[in-house]
Amino acid sequence: MSSTNNWLAKLFAKKSANTIRFADSEVALQDGESVLDGLLRAGHSVPYGCRGGSCQSCMMQCTDGDVPPQAQQGLTAAQQELGYFLACSCHPSESMSVALKPAAEKIIAPVIDKAQLTANVVRLRIKAPLNYRAGQFINLFRNGAVSRSYSLASVVGVDDYIELHIKRVEGGKLSPWAYDDLSVGDEVAIEGPNGQCFYTPGDAQQPMLLTGLGTGLAPLYGIVRDALVNHQHQGPIQLVVGSKHSDQLYLFDELKALSDNYPNLSVSFVAQQSTNPAVTEADIYQYCKELVPDGKGYKVFLCGAESFVKKMKKQCFLAGTNMADIAADAFVPSGS
Amino acid sequence: MFGLFKKKEKAAPSPEEKAASVFDKLGGAAAIDAAVDIFYRKVLADDRISHFFDTIDMEAQHVKQKAFLTMAFGGPNNYSGKDMREAHKHMNLTEEHFNAVAENLVGTLQELGVSQEDIDSVVTIAVSVKDDVLNK
């Protein structure tokens, strides 16, 4: 009798324990144990720091199951939507599958369209069945070995392909190949998506500022259409695209059509030097400062060279925008 | 006679205990984000110290400031002083720099409507990290 009870108790305990699935193994959490403590106890290597929910060193991603709200305290809306959580503050009431890094998906897909956007930027459209958020980026491979990151200019539910804007970088290992040699019909390998710079539905009335330099327009073109078309964003949206010279700017017709369709969108093109009447000659920082003198309550998206993103982020923050409301994607040149 | 059974005097609350009430009064972890924004904005606008922040990653810094304020407000933290010391070691910081940060902290609390008494307990905790920051 007592052995039966024992057996029942064991069985019951096993069933009620919260199991954490991680790296092809399972860890049953003990009473009051956090996901971090459970994984560490089981001998897994998970980075961590304060264990108090502040330092965010132990950020993990939930790939299956529900994340308790207190485990996402202080994370951005984008991080929450991606299922990121802090393992030290996570006491789940049910089982979860967790991962250290978002599982990357590799896809082989054909190029279906290639068009010139400026003198050194091409647009590639690839028929890839990828699940992503507009504004994220993918890695494009050459010969399966060399890869570079490119932002997605396309939008799920609007475009049935993924779109990349590729600037030819002289001496680069990938872009001259993509620019010169890649043709419609060729198959390419991509991996992703990655990145946290995308629209998160929440306050449809929130004013938004999207600004970028050069091909920084690619993710912004995706984000702005995602907000307007997929999420019916109602608040005013300012899109400001800049470059050194006006002939480096593109998508004039597409953005004109978009702002005609959506009166809450206004688009500005600015360049340090302009020979195009549609492009204002101005310093983009000054231009944005005058356009949005008070950034309080704004949602901001910044895309482009790292120096631009850094400087603009500081400017927007000092103008009153909450840090959590500034999403940025800095284009970093590759080391090798 | 009753003196024999006199209750033990309740010990005066420590700065940590007092500050912990500030953490709760402000609204816990969720409210710290708003406080960090105000605090960090003040620090970046302060000519005495803003140049230290010219080249840093703002988001990473924001996370660190949140950890610091959580500690100063008596919230759950695991402060050891080691990271604080390591991070500031090569910056040649002086008393003036430390005071500038402390002033910005006080300004933030005032802006959030925190009482002077509570500000005092937060400042007491903040000042306790001074030797770590100045590498003394």
TrEMBL record, chain B:
Please share the entry's free-text remark on the cofactor: Binds 1 heme group per subunit.
* Binding annotation for heme: 88
Q: Which cofactor does it need?
A: heme
Picking any one GO molecular function of the record gives: oxygen binding
The cross-references to Gene3D superfamilies, in alphabetical order and at most eight, read: Globins (1.10.490.10)
Keywords for the protein's UniProt record, in alphabetical order: Heme, Iron, Metal-binding, Oxygen transport, Transport
Q: Which residues form the signal peptide?
A: none
Q: Which residues form a coiled coil?
A: none
* Protein family (similarity comment): Belongs to the truncated hemoglobin family. Group I subfamily.
Q: What is this protein called?
A: Group 1 truncated hemoglobin
The protein's organism comes out as Neiella litorisoli
